[in-house]
Amino acid sequence: MSPIATQLILWHKDHGRHHLPWQGSRDPYAVWLSEIMLQQTQVNTVIPYYARFMQEFPTLSSLAQAPLDAVLVIWSGLGYYSRARNLHLAARMIMQDYQGQFPDTRVILQKLPGIGRSTAAAIAVFAFNKREAILDGNVKRILTRYFGIAGYPEESRIKNLLWEKSEEVLPVTCRENQIETYTQALMDLGATVCIRHTPICKACPLQHNCVAFKEKRVDQFPTTRLRKPLPKKEAVFLLLMQHQKLLLEKRPASGIWGELWCPPEIKTGIDAASYCQHQLGITVQSPIELPILDHQFTHFKLRIHPQLLQVVSNTLDPHNKFIWIKPSDALEYAIPAPVRKLLKQNFLLDNHDTSNHLNTN
Ligand code: SF4
After folding, report:
1. Span from the CA of 204 to the centroid of ligand 1 (angstroms)
2. Could you tell me the residue range of the domain that residue 110 belongs to?
3. Mean pLDDT of 250-257
4. How many domains does the structure of the chain reveal?
5. CA 212 / ligand 1 centre spacing (Å)
6. Which of 101, 138, 151, 332 is 20 to 30 A from 291 in CA distance terms?
7. Residue range 141-155, pLDDT digits in tens
8. Mutation test of ligand 1: which of 207, 211, 220, 221 has the most ligand atoms closer than 8 Å to its C-beta?
């Protein structure tokens, strides 16, 4: 066995994480859900979402049968909503195309929406005891440091090299849960020891062979990309109030907040009252500017200018696209995190607290 695999398996016994809610199960559905939630999200944030999701949709078929809206409600606040949409779509595909049988190979798992090579490999390892290599962000960091691999890890040449290394250091067999323990140990080392800033090398089982550690160059790996400043976008959110209810609009399926509920949005510089009159059929009083809210996405920054508008008269036909809802009840809907924050800030909502400090008659 490779020195990495031997050392990690030994290390994991006393130092790895053994009590995460999705551990100890070979249920591919539970493994899949945890792996998707853990993409781009920390374990501590994932745990309560995972518990609620499993309570609401305990099986693959229950997820496949649920309306997407119900899935987005449970996902609301976790961010990266395409993950939830892909989970739902993949659940339906498995029910229809695979007769409800979860695919058990990495190659087929990778064909499902939202499942890349590393996630497919992790599911194949944890649910089906297959000998597959993973390469998530934590593993890229460990391998670049351990082998002293310079170059930006997302560049295809470096990424291919890292995949080769990840395969090269796998345990030779899958006997006695070796592959599962090894893979979990790799994830745990990246999350608790070989962390992004100031790794705890003195507690690392790999330090004797780690190039970055031996050469005192830990801070040089992984190579970072020179970051350009994030582009900035601005938008106006219209908080239309009538009889203490707020108007929310369902976003189109494509886009960052696809199928989520938000206040109507307009570009800055557009006259809000005129937009409401002509696009929504709603006459409003003069808008009141509310405090600006800044939100950062991976690829851009959004500055939200909220405006409170009291409705004078209203001929809007809601169809399925609009709802009038108490701001406190809106928190139970599938709304993105900045909208949740906006409602809490401006209506003093604290979970089920229905009091508000704005005059919203
Ligand atoms: S010795 Fe330090 S840099 Fe090298 S793998 Fe361990 S924690 Fe990471």
Report:
1. 6
2. 27-128
3. 88
4. 3
5. 7
6. 332
7. 999 999 999 999 999
8. 207
